[in-house]
Amino acid sequence: MKKTISIIAIIVLSILSIYALIDLIESAYLVMRYEHFDARSSGNIFGKFIFIVISCFAIRFILKWNRKKSTS
């Protein structure tokens, strides 16, 4: 049961990370094309980057936890 929940969490976080990565690239492109980097646009892009990093660490943690539980 826990492994199933972990796999579902990994899939959901992976989908969110891919979406956030595409959104980050699109936002950076639109800011470079139509605006200039000010505090608000830079903060928005930085927040998206931080979300991607946290999602990747969460996926990595869940994978390590699953491997540790399955070998025990």
From TrEMBL:
Top-level taxon in the UniProt lineage: Bacteria
Keywords: Membrane, Transmembrane, Transmembrane helix
Protein name per Swiss-Prot or TrEMBL: Uncharacterized protein
Spans through the membrane: 7-25, 45-63
